[in-house]
Write a structure and sequence with these properties.
Blueprint: H1 26-47, H2 52-76, H3 80-89, H4 91-110, H5 116-132, E1 139-143, E2 148-151, H6 154-179, H7 184-211, H8 220-238, H9 245-261, H10 268-344, H11 352-383, E3 391-394, H12 395-412, E4 416-421, E5 427-430, H13 432-448, E6 454-461, E7 465-472, H14 479-482, H15 495-498, H16 506-516, E8 520-524, E9 532-539
Parallel strand pairs: 4-6
Antiparallel strand pairs: 1-2, 3-5, 6-7, 7-9, 8-9
Helix pairs in contact: 1-2, 1-8, 1-9, 2-3, 2-4, 4-5, 4-6, 4-7, 6-7, 7-8, 8-9, 8-10, 9-10, 10-11, 11-16, 12-13, 13-16
Length: about 550
């Protein structure tokens, strides 16, 4: 393929570019900003690839990088065809910068996705720009003498569109300031950076074209540099994009590239100008970072104090729980012995009615003692006081014992307690006592909340897991109650109507025990009146 050289062009660099015709500031201004744009865009995007906000920001930075790439090609390209192509393609990133800026600003300021109508308008703009890209409406001619394009009739309208886009962002900011006064500083800093960036970009492009002095274009990227500085501060100050360290890294990288760019400047006069600009940006970045670091230190000191206060409150709570449970359990135990003495004749002969009442008292006290033990156990599990003795445990053997022990209370209520224990090895690493407590708790729950029907205790295994299940034909679980399962004090909305002794700590203790065994527990139900199923999944012990 034979390409025609621009007049007087010498493709000395890589056989494709002529760097001698580029203005001294081209490399200082464009190369660092090109690299920083791509770096900043992808680092933000990779924090959350599914975030629309991050995608829009990536769109801005990649569009700007593409624009810089094409502009540099226009300045340094040695061949007519490639320079002409760069002029033709410039319309796409030019429009894209403003489109993505509007979408990004809306999403950032209002913290919600862009309405569908905006997306349809964007799609139409892209389609329109793509259609006119290869036509004379975009580039109506090519000046062979100067090796540059002559813009077509579309460009005045593009500049109008860009002014409108800036105005829309200003309106977004005003609306945000009116609706959310608490975010005034965040809104002002973000909007200021965005408007300065787009306005500087528009000014340099419009007046560069108007005066045919394309060196003015070199001012454009300064706006995005300021935008990156302000956006970095917003990230640190207001924790935008769910990241903070990244902004400090970007600021330091930006400063590094700004200093590096001085190496490409040929004259000392330009070096002085560039060094002054760099000094201003470094000073601004340093002030913002120092303020942010001070704020971080202050917040850490406050968090340390709050954490110390919290630890003290936790210890006080633990002491109170142990004191109350000790006193309450002692009271239940003493009254239980009194009722037991009545039943065994310690206090002499009593009437059958009194014995009947005493039996009720013993049962009530036993329930109270169990409740106190449950609350105390949960407290100890949360603080790590309880230590699990991990040994090989045969879950099938534990399940069989549980079924045998719970058959009497189930049948006393008219329920059928069955089993579905599959053959095979059900050995896990765990504490037999506490795993037995899990099984007891789940079967007891089914007995309490199943008025009639049957309960089935199941056990099966997969290649790496053992699954223990308890299924019943009871009251079932509502969608609302499912949210409270396995939470501290979490009870069903109507659970107290069925079980007056319900505390909400039973299933919570089950979760704590299973979590300590590196397993999972969950409950399922098709709805009220359709029964429930509870599952415990534990890893099989490796040989």
């Amino acid at each position: 393929m034979n390409l025609n050289l621009c007049l007087d062009a010498v493709p000395a660099f890589l056989g494709f570019f002529d760097l001698s015709v580029a203005p001294p500031m081209l490399f200082y201004v464009y190369i660092p900003i090109f690299i920083i744009s791509i770096l900043f865009g992808f680092l933000i995007f990779l924090q959350d690839r599914h975030s629309s906000l991050n995608k829009y920001f990536l769109g801005i930075t990649l569009s700007f990088a593409a624009w810089i790439f094409l502009i540099m090609f226009q300045w340094t390209g040695a061949y007519l065809e490639t320079v002409h192509l760069a002029w033709q393609l410039l319309i796409i990133p030019e429009i894209s910068i403003y489109i993505f800026s509007v979408l990004f600003s809306y999403n950032f300021l209002f913290n919600k996705n862009v309405p569908a109508i905006y997306k349809y308008m964007v799609a139409l703009l892209f389609i329109g720009a793509s259609i006119i890209t290869p036509t004379v409406v975009n580039v109506e001619a090519f000046d062979l003498l100067n090796c540059e394009g002559v813009v077509g009739q579309a460009w005045p309208w593009i500049y109008v569109f860009e002014i409108v886009a800036i105005g829309v962002i200003v309106l977004f900011a005003i609306e945000k300031l009116i609706k959310a006064r608490s975010e005034r500083l965040k809104t002002i800093l973000f909007s200021l950076g965005m408007v300065v960036f787009l306005s500087t970009f528009w000014f340099s492009n419009y007046f560069g074209e108007l005066t045919q002095t394309y060196e003015i274009n070199l001012i454009g990227p300064i706006g995005i540099a300021l935008f990156f500085v302000l956006l970095s501060y917003v990230i640190i100050r207001f924790k935008s994009f769910n990241t903070k360290l990244i902004s400090a890294q970007i600021l330091m990288t930006a400063i590094w590239f700004l200093v590096l760019g001085i190496l490409f400047v040929g004259t000392i006069e330009n070096v002085r100008i560039i060094t002054s600009v760099t000094l201003i940006l470094v000073t601004l970045s340093g002030v913002l970072l120092v303020r942010s670091v001070r704020r971080e230190v202050s917040q850490k000191e406050q968090l340390a104090k709050l954490n110390a206060d919290l630890q003290m409150l936790i210890k006080q709570r633990e002491s109170l729980v142990h004191l109350v449970t000790h006193k309450v359990k002692g009271a239940f135990t003493r009254s239980k012995y009194i009722f037991a003495g009545i039943l065994d004749g310690t206090f002499g002969d009593v009437s059958p009615e009194i014995k009947k009442r005493a039996a009720v008292g013993v049962e009530s006290d036993n329930g109270g003692i169990q409740t106190v033990d449950l609350v105390l156990n949960v407290s100890n599990m949360q603080t790590g006081t309880i230590k699990y003795e991990m040994k090989p445990v045969d879950l099938k053997e534990l399940a069989q014992k549980t079924i045998s022990e719970k058959k009497v209370p189930a049948e006393a209520k008219g329920l059928k307690l069955g089993s579905d224990l599959g053959d095979g090895n059900y050995t896990v690493s765990g504490d037999a006592f506490w795993l037995k407590e899990v099984m007891n708790n789940l079967v007891d729950n089914s007995i309490k909340y199943t008025p009639a029907g049957k309960i089935t205790v199941g056990l099966k295994r997969t290649d790496s897991q053992v699954i223990f299940s308890v299924k019943d034909t009871g009251l079932g679980i509502t969608d609302e109650d499912k949210k409270n399962l396995f939470t501290e004090g979490g009870r069903g909305k109507d659970s107290v109507k069925i079980n007056v002794d319900s505390t909400g700590y039973g299933l919570f203790s089950v979760k704590l025990i299973i979590d300590a065994h590196k397993g999972q527990v969950w409950g399922e139900s098709e709805g009220p009146g359709k029964g429930s199923q509870f599952y415990v999944e534990l890893p099989i012990m490796q040989k």
